[in-house]
Amino acid sequence: MRRAAGLVLAVALLAAGAWLVRLFVEDSGPKELSTRVAEKPRVASGGEISGALAGTAVVEQIPAKSVGAEPPQPPGDFPIATDRDGEAVWLSGTNDPTILRELVRWKPGTGSAERYRLSEPSLVFAPGSGHSVAVTPFGLLILGGKFFVAGQWLDDGRRLVLLDAKKNQVMVGQLHVGRERPYFLVLRDKSVIVASGVKISTNAVERIFSRDGELKVEPLPDLPGEFRRGVSLVELSDGRVMALGGSTSQYVGYEPMLADTFILDLAAKKWSAGPRMMEARTNATATLLPDGRVLVAGGWAGKHTWNDTATRSTELLSPSGDRFSAGAELVIGVAGHQAMWVPGQRDKQLLVAGGFLRGWSGNNSVQAYDVDKSEWRSIGECASDFKTGDVAVVPFSLGGGASLWCKHGGEPGGPWSLVSLRIPTPGAEKSQRIDAEAGIALKRQGLAFLSPQGNSPGLAVGGAATFGAQSAAVDAVWSDGRMQSMASLAHARTNAQVFRLQDGSILVTGGVSGDRTQRTERVPPAELLPLPAGAAPESARWTALDMSLEDGAILGQLGDGSLIALEPGGDVERWVVTGAAEGRPAVQRTSFPSLNRGRKPSRGEDGTTLVVKALSDGRIVVAGGDEQPHRIAVLHEDALKPDAPDQFVGIGDYGPGKTHEIYDPAAKVWRESAPSRGAGGRAAVLDDGRVVKWGSVTAAPAGAKSADQQAAEVRGILEISSADGKSWRELEGPETIHMVERRPFTIEGELFLSGHQVVQWFDAANRRWLTIWSAPGNNTLLHLGRIVVRDLPGGKRVVLPVAGL
User: Predicted confidence band at 573 (pLDDT cuts at 50, 70, 90)?
Assistant: First the structure.
């Protein structure tokens, strides 16, 4: 082996943020694995930095791992990218200058990796920012941004570094026009097109290629029209390059978007106008599909402001390239993201990760577009940096399953996480399994949750990601821990309700779509998922169902599978959904006795604060939420008959409720319970009709004399009613916490109490509370939408939400 002592090559990276990269070389001794000695590396220059470099490069081949083995974990702080075939390339090592650095090319298809050890004694790069990184056929290309070279900052955004370990070359060049986080496109002819960056607006277009051992940069004609940034690039099936959209403003917020496109003939070096997109957008992605169409996904669109969410809309360019048409909507709107093919499923499954959901709100959802089905699904969770939208991801298929190495772009030195994607791959099981102890955090709050029933899966529906960006995601989970992505809703929503109908179909109603800050909030239409007996859930699709629900209305389900609808004024109807399995759903409505007073979900809370539960003896209990404090009798034609039941309506403003109502099926009337001590709060209804309620009580401290001392003290109280609702008592159990709301809820007849990152189960046999889940630390964002599977004493297995629902 040739021995070499060296200095360091240090480079800053990642399209995901200012991650530091350094290459160091120390004396290397004999290796047990077979190696070969390469020639001395060369440096080719396209700018003012030049000079031959002495040193060695050692290539080391790692034997292929067995199918199903984990891949080598990516490094902590280094450039990483994937090429067109899904192979990942990164710089390996640590910040310790005594440790040798390697360029690693990992091949997910075989599980093998090639390692190229680099030593460069005369060229030094130190930390910088604003780079982009790409895997080219020639090696790892780092371009744009700011470098520190030979004792001085080079911050004009023009520098290029190409690490080509196969040919044992390190090439340095420069662009003609500087850029920060430049947008680029690797072409089929192995060259790279560079356009505008993330912030700097420029119409300059350049082409990078390697020829005769040198790095060449060729200026191309400028993009026509106004200066712009955030331009999407795609290579068409005929080899031409299309540039799409962009923004003429440097800033996100109140920015003018562009819908025009231009097509570059590389042979003629000439731009021509292309068809206009249906929607003006910037920071979108454009991907060539196998049939010649181009899929344009997401971005900032329309009249966009800093507080608006990114668009869910997509467009498809026809194979002839003459017009755009609407495509399937994303699960959640995203901009500034990455698009890449699932290794082993190129042209079948397209991944979207990273980027922003709204200004300074990173995206934590991984979505996949199924080319054959023309639909998007939420398939995993991988958080991007909330300021830059950057994320490092390495998708791979190994052992028949699709997975993703994920690293948060804003956490230099932080750990990578291995994410199992909820997407079927050839030869793999159709479902992943969630961790038996930790479960899975879907990173969405305000989920609608439905428990598994027999062979039918439970569902986690909709919800909102960071800063209220609503999602249309639907995930199925079985009691044995299997999990699977399902077709997305047509309408993204949070705080909805979900029901399993008698024929097995799934109904999603209510919730909120839109943005309160932009005054676009609305109740979205109901959606139905027909699931005939024996149908595979992944093959079903959501259809709209006109239910004309009033804002604030809530549904419950009766024992025969029909629904009961409560309007805020107290009116009640019974609804029967027919024709669901045949795909011709309709709603049959019949009248039902009204409540004694108006009830609705609490102000500022989600719909679960008002609970409707049907009991096995035919009674119906309505508990929780806000209520009208007064009621008056209604005069009707039968009111004077001796046995006619009284009818009431509520009057007055709504306030925190203390009573609940119980429907008597024999008398066909609603009877009001005795008032509880605590007002408002959450409620749960047990199978025997008892109501468990977390409310608040006020009391002046004992011995208070001053006005401040006499101020009312508010504390929480946990109470349980009798089955007939005529009495209440304080429920023994966990110690109450001052001013901290607890949430009682039931799953499969069991009573649970959710607090601050803790969930307790009530052991009715021993009359005690047992903690079945708790989370360390105070970062609630780590547990949004977490679902776990637990085996309770006695053998019952439950799937339950424990945080963020």
Answer: very high
- What whole-number distance in Å separates Cα of residue 302 and Cα of residue 282? 10
- Percent helix / strand / coil, the chain, rounded to 5: 0, 45, 55
pLDDT in tens, 276-326: 999 999 999 999 999 999 999 999 997 777 778 899 999 999 999 999 999
* Cβ proximity of 167 and 210 under 8 Å: no
d(CA 733, CA 718): 9
Identify whether the C-beta of residue 243 lies closer than 8 Å to the C-beta of residue 222. no
Are 658 and 695 in contact by the 8 Å Cβ rule? The answer is yes
State pLDDT tens for residues 25-42. 222 222 222 222 223 333
User: Which residues are bridge partners to 73 per DSSP?
Assistant: none
Contacts of 531 by beta carbon, 8 Å cutoff, 6+ apart: 456, 503, 504, 505, 506, 537, 540, 581
Alpha-carbon 562 to chain mean position: 33
Residue-level pLDDT at 716: 83
Cβ neighbors of 458 (< 8 A, separation 6 or more) are 449, 450, 451, 452, 476, 477, 478, 479, 799
Residue with tokens 């404090």: 629
Full DSSP string of 142-205: EESS-EEETTEEE-SS-EEEEEETTTTEEEEEE-SS--SS--EEE-TTS-EEE---SSS----E
Q: Let me know: does 407 contact 354? Beta carbons within 8 Å.
A: no
C-alpha 438, offset from chain centre: 18
Nearest to 422 by CA among 487, 363, 373, 361: 487
- Residue 781: helix, strand or coil by DSSP? helix
Phi/psi region, residue 366 (left: phi>0; alpha: psi -120 to 50; beta: rest), is beta
Sequence-ordered list of residues with C-beta below 8 angstroms from that of 446, at least 6 positions apart, any chain: 462, 463, 464, 494, 495, 511, 606, 804, 805
Q: Is 623 strand, coil or helix?
A: strand
Provide the sign of the torsion angle of the four alpha carbons 716, 718, 722, 728, taken in this order.
negative
Give every strand in the sheet of 349-353, ordered side by side: 338-341, 349-353, 365-370, 375-381
